[in-house]
Amino acid sequence: MPPRDTTDAQLAAQYEAFPYPARDPREEAKRLIIGSPSHLREIDHWIFGARRPASQPLNALMAGGGSGDGTIMLAQQMTTLNRPGRVTWLDRSTEARRIAEARARTRGLTNITFEEGSLLDLPRSGLGPFDYIDCCGVLHHLPNPDEGLAALASVLAPGGGIGIMVYAPHGRTGVYMLQEALRLLAPTDEPPATRVETGKRVWKQLPETAWLKRNPWIDDHLKGGDSGFYDLLLNPRDRAYTIPQLAALVAGAGLRIACLVEPLRYNPDTWLTDPKLRARTAGLDPIARAALAEALCGNMGIHIAYLTRDEAPKADWADDAAIPVLRELDGPAMARALRPDGLLPVTFDSLRVQIPLPRLAAALLTRIDGRTPWSEIVSSIPAPADQITRDRAALVAALEPLNRLLLAAP
């Protein structure tokens, strides 16, 4: 599909010159990059409510797959857990494809299909339908994000879901100011390498009063190499979404927000403990509550959301046959590290909160291994049944909103 406009052509040139994010395929032998959206445990839980059988093949699309982080993560998790299905990588960048394919070869992954093209062409592509679609860090660069999300929705299978990441304005304070300055000194019609060289010179000379110098939550220009610097500060087109703007974008595509990650961050009561203020937050609808939390905290640089067409099924935490799983946590190790006061310290981009855990938290966490159902877990704990029931519910209430305690696919 040819570029939509001059800016679109500049974007295409950018990602050929600086595939994003910068990755060395040789590093795959040392680590697996984990993140959200598109962690398999999250898809099982937030999209399918832990009701879609693990034996059912998952057909997934990475729309704007870039150098492959999400593609490699999901394909590797499916392979490790012996889950059937395929992951389709889709992007316009030939250079990004080269890197993503090399990463897949290093890992020996055979469940990935590579397709070059634009996600805007999906309705006419013959691809899909897909049970799950990832679009991480892409919509905010498109000429028309509404068209982009509608294109994704057009190839979404019934009952499926989409994981997205878009920029958020408050945590990106300083970014757009410096972008404006660099458009004057490093015009978008110059070659990408020339623009990066000029941009780095500007950064070295930037006054200490520049807001980006004071923003501790944005570091792609410092740690992301030339591709990170370009993507953050020289990108010819990006926009940021507040929660109400994101909700409008989603609704325009006939979708709904099933979950914002992490849910606890978007609960204003996490930050407002005054009973009179909580009485006021109780009268707000879910989007207004999330918008309030966003405005109060001021440190959200991105929004990660899982979307569905219909209301997503909720995980049944009362089901004794369900299998709890800790997302990227070791239960016994976590149990040993619990503080005597029962508080779990959690930090969200420098913002610290204490999460109270129940008395039986250690006993429960020690037994959660992603294979054992609740029935076996609770039957092995030497405590009164009513206390186990209460503490089990309290542990779920504490850790599910952190996106840490989820239910496995049956």
Automatic annotation (TrEMBL):
CDD domains in the cross-refs: AdoMet_MTases
Transcription regulation found in the keyword field: no
InterPro entries on file: Methyltransf_12 (IPR013217), SAM-dependent_MTases_sf (IPR029063)
Residues in Methyltransferase type domain copies: 63-161
A GO term, aspect molecular function: methyltransferase activity
One record GO biological process: methylation
Keywords: Methyltransferase, Transferase
SUPFAM superfamilies, per database record: S-adenosyl-L-methionine-dependent methyltransferases
Pfam families found in the cross-reference section: Methyltransf_12
Signal peptide start-end: none
Zinc in keyword set: no
Family matches, as Gene3D superfamilies: Vaccinia Virus protein VP39
Protein name: Methyltransferase domain-containing protein
Source organism of the structure: Falsiroseomonas stagni DSM 19981
